[in-house]
Write a structure and sequence with these properties.
cell membrane; MetI-like fold; 0% strand; transmembrane helix; 335 residues; globular; transport
């Protein structure tokens, strides 16, 4: 059943990704502005302009352009960036690891903070501390990631300069990376100076991305825990003398984690999309920052490649969350 479900989801995901690519492809070509006009030098002849348009396939009809582009993508050729004059796939693979490190670090922090606050709120239910936790979480829930980013820049970047304001690593550090995963490679190679420097550059963007997600996790997980705490199996464990902390962590949490996990997967896709603004604020060299430059420069091949990458990430994350939820829930696993 799981194999059939995965196959069905992959088919639907492929069709969805193709549809998104087609819509974006058409929209990019009907909006005002000509990307070739941003590339030509002053005094270029009509023949030079025509040659440049032919080079990027912009002289063909819209269906023909889409057909050529789709055929190239299926063969692993995402085209050449108009603004950077480099292979699009090479650019994406070079920037994607930075964004993935940022997103997964933010996810870990959000799970730790959101889970801890939800457990504390459950332990102190029906006490004066519970409404205080709920009210604070409700206020923080309304603060978007870019506001957190700007606040962190002002507080721990300018007023109290603790962390670096921009970039991914100090350029004065001497190391030749074998992979684009700087944080992981620094740890594996025991270059603690590199690891801590990369981590210091990630602190502010990670917090800006993690805090909004942590508030969502807190609300959903706390509601699920409160519902689980009145179930018969928890009441039976309480009669056996189990402590309140063990009741929450050992009995209620494993049954309440399902809804929170599903929502976290959905929210994580928005977190990856949120890296666009946060990376721009901190000048972080990920695909989010590159996406803004691509839109500004009307770099059609690069924008199309970015859309496919973001779409593929969303599909993989949702599929992974569904499989994990099925593995944790016997009813879903055997349904």
């Amino acid at each position: 059943m799981i194999a059939i479900s995965i196959l069905n989801r992959l088919i639907v995901a492929t069709v969805t990704l193709l549809g998104v690519a087609a819509i974006v492809f058409v929209l990019l070509r009907i909006v005002p502005g000509d990307p070739i006009a941003m590339m030509i030098a002053p005094g270029a002849s009509p023949a030079d302009i025509a040659a440049l348009r032919a080079r990027y396939g912009l002289d063909l009809s819209l269906p023909a352009q889409f057909g050529v582009w789709l055929q190239s993508v299926l063969m692993g050729d995402f085209g050449t960036s108009i603004s950077l004059r480099r292979d699009v796939l090479e650019l994406l693979l070079g920037r994607l690891p930075a964004t993935l490190e940022l997103a997964f670090a933010a996810l870990i922090v959000a799970l730790a903070v959101g889970g801890a606050v939800a457990v504390v709120g459950t332990l102190f239910r029906r006490t004066p501390l519970e409404p205080a936790i709920d009210a604070t979480n409700g206020v923080l829930l309304a603060v978007p990631d870019f506001v957190w980013a700007l606040a962190l820049v002002l507080v721990v970047g300018v007023f109290i300069p603790i962390f670096p304001l921009s970039g991914r690593i100090d350029p004065t550090l001497s190391i030749d990376f074998f992979t684009p995963f700087y944080l992981l490679e620094g740890l594996i190679r025991f270059r603690l100076d590199v690891f801590f420097d990369v981590a210091a550059h990630m602190v502010m963007p990670v917090l800006a991305l993690a805090l909004p997600l942590a508030t969502v996790i807190t609300r959903i997980l706390k509601e699920a825990l409160l519902e689980a705490m009145v179930q018969d199996y928890v009441l039976l464990a309480r009669l056996k003398g189990m402590s309140e902390l063990r009741l929450v962590l050992q009995e209620a949490l494993r049954n309440a984690v399902g809804p929170a996990l599903s929502l976290t997967g959905v929210q994580f896709t928005f977190l990856v999309g949120g890296t666009v603004i946060v990376e721009r604020i901190f000048a972080y060299p990920g695909i989010g920052n590159m996406a803004i430059d691509a839109v500004i420069n009307r770099d059609l091949p690069l924008i199309q490649g970015l859309v496919l990458v973001f779409g593929a990430i969303f599909i993989v994350i949702n599929l992974a969350v569904d499989l994990l939820a099925a593995a944790l829930n016997p009813r879903l696993r055997h349904g």
